[in-house]
Q: What sequence folds into this?
């Protein structure tokens, strides 16, 4: 089973650039997209209801063209949820939960950005806590979890080009990075680092304003995390910087179920 995750920074924009259609036609089993900035009625038919995929959208209820995620699933999506059941988080359209199998849940999440203000940083940290609580609920129900998406935080110095210069920047604050530590302490594995523990210069986001991508001055802020119980089922993990169309690039995993 092949799963890809990508912050597209506008689904309609990446569609017009011709970057999303090859993924829909590439034989992938599940495609998780974040920051779609659209609701289903704003999309062309082949994105709203593509052949061979069930499309599960979560769109912002507070304003159009903001946030949003979609999971395109070629397998039975099982028990679907469009949020944590917490209105202040669910109304921004950041969460889609589907199932890979009866005992493995897939969370496609676009985590908040904390750079805009202290209030948004607080919102991001509370969203982080709610994510851990939700995963704990799934565990009580007997499900392992694969979490993917734009986490908006680089975990370790290896995960961004200039760690020292960004220690006081949201996205690399110690309090944000500590949440990833907590996630790992709760039995999760950073899948990319599991397969590539020392690989440097492996990034998923670049600042467009400074032309950082051409110089590979980036951050790894997009992840697959998996319950340690199922990590051995994941046989490959990759970053795809050659796929253009967004300020992020896709990441992928392969599972042997």
A:
């Amino acid at each position: 089973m092949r799963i890809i995750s990508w912050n597209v920074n506008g689904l309609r924009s990446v569609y017009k650039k011709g970057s999303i259609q090859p993924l829909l036609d590439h034989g992938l089993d599940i495609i998780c997209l974040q920051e779609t900035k659209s609701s289903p009625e704003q999309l062309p038919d082949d994105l709203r209801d593509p052949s061979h995929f069930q499309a599960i959208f979560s769109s912002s209820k507070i304003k159009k063209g903001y946030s949003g995620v979609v999971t395109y699933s070629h397998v039975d999506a099982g028990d679907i949820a469009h949020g944590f059941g917490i209105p202040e988080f669910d109304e921004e359209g950041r969460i889609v939960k589907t199932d890979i199998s009866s005992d493995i849940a897939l969370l496609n999440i676009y985590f908040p950005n904390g750079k805009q203000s202290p209030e948004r940083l607080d919102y991001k940290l509370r969203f982080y806590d709610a994510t851990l609580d939700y995963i704990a609920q799934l565990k009580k129900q007997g499900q392992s979890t694969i979490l993917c998406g734009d986490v908006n935080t680089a975990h370790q110095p290896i995960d961004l080009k200039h760690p020292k210069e960004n220690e006081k920047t949201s996205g690399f604050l110690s309090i944000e990075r500590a949440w990833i530590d907590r996630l790992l302490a709760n039995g999760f594995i950073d899948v990319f680092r599991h397969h590539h523990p020392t690989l440097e210069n492996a990034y998923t986001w670049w600042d467009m304003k400074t032309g950082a991508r051409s110089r590979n001055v980036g951050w790894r802020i997009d992840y697959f995390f998996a319950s340690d119980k199922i990590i051995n089922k994941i046989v490959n993990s990759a970053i795809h910087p050659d796929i253009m169309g967004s300020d992020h690039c896709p990441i992928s995993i392969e599972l042997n179920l």
